[in-house]
Write a structure and sequence with these properties.
Length: 164
C-alpha cells in the first residue's frame, strides 16, 4: 500500500485514493434565478433519522453553486443503473431539462422521473467544507422504488455487474 500526505502530494493522488470508495450517484435539483437547476453529485449521505437529515457537498467552483447554497429547498434524486445519461446530462449543463417529463413538488422543485429514491428537502444548514460546502437538508418527503443503483468508483460509472 502506497502512503502519502495529501497536502504535500498532488491533488490527483488524493482524488485517486478517494476514488477507491464506491458511491451512489445523485442529481440534485432546485430553482434558481433563471429557472430549474440540476447538478450531478456523488457526495451524498444520510446524517440523522430524528430529525430526518441528509447532506451533500457541491463544489464552490461550480457555476451552479450559488443556486444551491442559497436554495430554501432542493430535491435529491438517487439514480438507477439505467440512468447514466441523466447523470451525464446534469454533469454537463445546469439547466438541461429539455425533453424531460418533470413534475414539481409543492415547493416548485423540478422532479426527475425513474429514480430509485428521492428526498425532497428544506435547507437546514450550510457548513464550510474547504473547496466544497456541506449542505444539510431536512427531509420533508421521501420516495423509493426497487432497482439497481448507478455507482461511481475509480472515476467510472457502472453498476454491480458492469463498469461504464
Amino acid at each position: 500500500m502506497d502512503q502519502f500526505t495529501p497536502e504535500s502530494s498532488s491533488p490527483e493522488d488524493f482524488r485517486a485514493a478517494l476514488g477507491r470508495y464506491a458511491t451512489g450517484v445523485t442529481v440534485v435539483t432546485t430553482v434558481g434565478n433563471r429557472g430549474p437547476v440540476g447538478i450531478t453529485a456523488n457526495s451524498f449521505t444520510s446524517l440523522s433519522l430524528a430529525p430526518p437529515l441528509v447532506l451533500w457537498c457541491p463544489a464552490r467552483s461550480s457555476a451552479r453553486f450559488p443556486a444551491f447554497e442559497t436554495a430554501r429547498h432542493y430535491a435529491i434524486h438517487v439514480l438507477a443503473a439505467d440512468q447514466l445519461e441523466l447523470c451525464r446530462r446534469f454533469a454537463r449543463a445546469a439547466a438541461d431539462f429539455d425533453g424531460l417529463p418533470t413534475e414539481e413538488t409543492p415547493e416548485g422543485l423540478p422532479l426527475l422521473p425513474g429514480c430509485l429514491a428521492r428526498f425532497d428537502c428544506a435547507a437546514y444548514a450550510v457548513h464550510e467544507g474547504g473547496d466544497h460546502a456541506i449542505l444539510v437538508g431536512r427531509v420533508l418527503r421521501a420516495s423509493l422504488r426497487d432497482g439497481e443503483p448507478l455507482l461511481f468508483w475509480g472515476g467510472r460509472y457502472g453498476d454491480f455487474l458492469h463498469h461504464g
